[in-house]
Amino acid sequence: MQHDEFRHYAESARKIARLLESSDSIVITTHVRPDGDAVGSMLGLSNALRMLGKSPRSIVSSPVPAFLRFLPHCDTIEQYNPLSHDGVIATADIIVCVDFNHLSRIESMEPIVASSTARRVLIDHHLDPEDGFAAALHDTEVASTAELVFALLALEYPATVDGDVAIPLYVGIVTDTGSFRFPRVTSRTHRIVAALLDRGVDPPAIHQALFDTNTPARMRLLGEVLRSLDVVCDGRCAILTVTRSALQAVNATMDDTEGFVQHTLTIEGVQIGVFLSEMFERDAVKISMRSKGNADVRLIAERFGGGGHLNAAGAIAEGMTIEQVKAQIIVLATELLSARRND
Ligand SMILES: [Mn+2]
After folding, report:
1. CA–CA separation, 169 vs 149, rounded Å?
2. What does CATH list as the number for 3-211?
3. Spacing, Cα 197 to ligand 1 middle (Å)
């Protein structure tokens, strides 16, 4: 691919490269509950830096999810614990913040990172970064942080992009773009992916490792959950539910329901998708919502004390039954969808 596609990043990349080169102690971190882009971007960067003779420490406040543990050198990512890491973080020369831009997103690590004398570097694609970064490669137009890490490496250290770097970056792009289908995917995204394939990425093997991970219990549970489908608001809102006893009947846990809400939006005409599950240890209902276009499901989540984004939000409704929550959500979704129709 042509490097002039990254021309507008050249100055930021140079500044970051200078900081990295002049640093002996480099810490890389990402947000809590890291996703494929967070872990892929961290590993892409840290595996490249190791090739350059650096010894970065990758420290995250939560564990790496199991479905990403196949990534090359994933065992170099350490889960934060104050006793082993506070000294390293406090005295680091540089802390690279990847795929997040507010220190509140690193939760338990926030105080020590905030008080560290290290210079902070940002590589990220989320809106509204806070102040305090000595250098930043920040672009909200890109679909994944992994594309920015690729740009940095392509501009400054092109020889480092081998399989151990290309695979995590590919995983970052695949997961943050919903397998190349989200709006911010561009022809440049695909040119980056083409370059990664040339460096040794094997898409079938990676897609299998990432996505073909269902257990029989999860598939049986999905069958039960799909049977609960209710389509309301003239076909524009789909609701799935699962009870505690349905989970127990197939020996599944709430973790097995991860991603079920996505099925709602695959129904033609549905703009708001809701998944309601009874929680195990408490008298509460977990609400997960997704939407398409401008239907702001965060407004519904906020009514239950939750939050999120325009197209993805959630809440925990304490002391309510699934039927009560569902009835309220239908009222709120009707309001939301009719307000949109009038604007
Ligand atoms: Mn991301």
Report:
1. 8
2. 3.90.1640.10
3. 20
